[in-house]
Amino acid sequence: MKLPCLFFFILLFGAGGLVLFIHLQDLSEMVQQQVPGSRFSVQMRQMTTKDLCTYSREAGRAELSPEELSRPVSPMQLPAFETKTPPAAFGSRESEGDGPGGQPAARVTKRRRKLLIKSAPLGPAANASAPGAPPPRADPAEWRRLSLVQEGRKRLMKDVCAKYKSSSKRTVTPYHVSRIFVEDKHKLLYCEVPKAGCSNWKRVLLVLEGFAPSTQEIQHNTVHYGNHLKRLDSFNYSGISHRLETYTKVLFVREPFERLVSAFRDKFEHPNSYYHPVFGRPIISKYRVNASRAALRTGAGVTFKEFMQYLLDVHKPVGMDIHWEHVNRLCSPCLVDYDFIGRFESMEEDANFLLHLTGAPRNLTFPSFKDRHSHEERTSARLTQQYFAQLTPSERQRAYDFYYMDYLMFNYSKPFQDLY
Q: In what ranges is there compositional bias, type Low complexity (predicted)?
């Protein structure tokens, strides 16, 4: 009699364990549905379908019906940059699937929708704009346009990465995120691209962190040498992974030739105790015929043509520098899935749109003042043309080839008609 009882007890225990396992699997799946991709994504989910009624993932898609215009947007309806699932865990490879970010598409049931609502994070501070709503007096059509511009930029970058970059599934390492600054309060990750507004962006991050009440009060040396901002590679693997998965990742770029000329003017046309001896002396030594002793000693007076000879030389006398390094190497956009891509050429518009989306205080706007050499004319397309006119057509072509991936990835037009 003992054996049948024991068998019946084991059978009953196994059945109970199976039921518990199935329940836990379902609970785990529901919890996964609650995890937000980023603060930016959560706030954008609160927009209505009307805010994005002109969005079309495929050419020729019909406009939404009047009935659809009043419905709240579910996470599955928004463009990819607003509802993207978190990237693969730090140190892992991306998975492949049918849904956003390579994940299997999931059906959002009524039960899970309630869980999503309950798990939404608290809103921003009282002095910040309400998330998901256009800025005060903003044109709704303009709000929609900026959202669609972001979607287009992200889609292009991903397409270029998929087509040209075999490294798209490589493991992310601390090296790849070494140029990314962290602002924990508003959950922002900003990748520094020198000569693309990075000084003023650091000022904005310092204000968001509470270091200063306004950007105007923060000096240049404080921005670059104060060590008040944390870099992403200063965290352990768990900290890096968590922030990559949940923070808003931001990248601002600039027309490559303009950025290059801006860097040259800043570093070589003004006294500089670092760039003249470290870069100027080897450049003059290798590329200037009959260089004077003073030039060889100080490294001052490098011409733009000499600088370009150095830049395009396969056997450079000195390595690259972040001020003229490719953006796709500085910020690894094929490995880090950026949520927002801004342009220097539309900085005020893009930056203030982003600040509103992330719940920044209403009185915080992107500063427009020139960080240094404020008396000089800003580097523009006209000035860039003048500098590159000093080069031969062949040298201009080689320079364009050198920055080709940045031109392609961020959709900048060819700066000269004779380029191919």
A: 120-131
